[in-house]
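User: I'm writing a short methods note and want a consistent example. For Phosphoglucomutase, I'll paste the sequence; you return only the structure tokens, no commentary, since I'll be parsing the reply automatically.
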Amino acid sequence: MTVFRAYDVRGVYGTELTDDIARKVGRALGSYLPGGRIALGRDTRVSGPLVERAFLEGVLSTGCSVESYGVLPISMIGFETWKGGYDAAAYISASHNPPEYNGIRFRTAEGYGMLYHETEMMDLYERGEFREGEGKKTDRSPEEVIRRYADYVEGKLSIERPLKIVLDMGNGSACGMAMLYERLDFDGRVINGEPDGLFPGRGPAPTEESLKEAAKMVVETGADYGVGFDPDADRGLVIDDRGRIVPPEKVSVILAKERYRTGDRVVAGFDCSMILERELLPLGFEVIRERVGDVFIANRVKREGAVIGVERSAHLFLPEFQLSDDPFAMSLVLGEVISRGERLSDLSDAIPDYPYVQRSVRIVGSAADVMRRLEGDLASLEPDTTDGLKITAEDYTVLIRPSNTQPLIRLYVETAGGSADELVERFEGLIKAAAK
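Assistant:
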């Protein structure tokens, strides 16, 4: 399995992602940005300092200057890269993966995800053609970035009453962000707020199951809502005042209705719920589907001039704040909406829920071959092939796409009427037949 994924470098540290690879990636980035000024940050993973050191050795050997912010959310690195006039940023993290993983992510000069495969960087890596020079590293204060960010967002918000919020930092890079909410007069209750790269509190991935303790705290303390972050804090999963997870699509619908207007565009991942079209199209919004992946969403949001970008995995983009996915801006704007008097649970319940089922079919051999056979089998249904095969009917959607990391074909079924189980059985059978 290659560590060079679609939009980052990632693998088990020491076996898949080695110091040599990290060093060479640093040399490739530095050679791609001759004499460049690069921002650098990381999450709390135990291997973070080791990967960071190797990467730094590489990028500094090309003559670039690097300003290192230590442990800081990637959304704050994106903000600082944009506002600070950097040429690019690198971030040491494996996002929501288990502690033994690590990786390197990239940001453009405007602070959003870099599609590095579309740059010269990988060509330089593969050819081993690197610049030589003597770069300089400067240490910067993460707290200063958070203060600058607080100054920036404060002028964009109008919060009408004090709010209580539960913040599940997940032992990751969000641990230093309580000061943001304090600055904006939130009554913040922090859980899993000690930085720890083993993520002992509830694991690295914020899910309905892992956020049960945070959800309980929301209810017991009478909080208005809660948010659970992943290690690099580019995702935030929302908990309503009744202790229930609010799907990212519902959050997007609430924000679109309350903050934006007819004619505005919303970019959504290919696997997002049909809630978006059913709720927003009648109001005059345009919903644009993009392939799954936060960096793909970020780039499409910029190209389309969209007001919101959303992924089912809880990446949410509000480009009026910055082009990077930013769960802190999301949580603050949601707070602004709630501060006007409505409960988040009522706003969420006003949006219908549709049964959404996900299955995985393990395959042997080429996923591409299986997908080609399925495309032929399903041709009469005219599937959209933007990212896998998506069939959209009047009252259901079916998405079939290969896993990026495992020998699996994923099946996603959502229905607004009829039986989801019958659709799952039908299409799961087709996948198994195509995989023989």
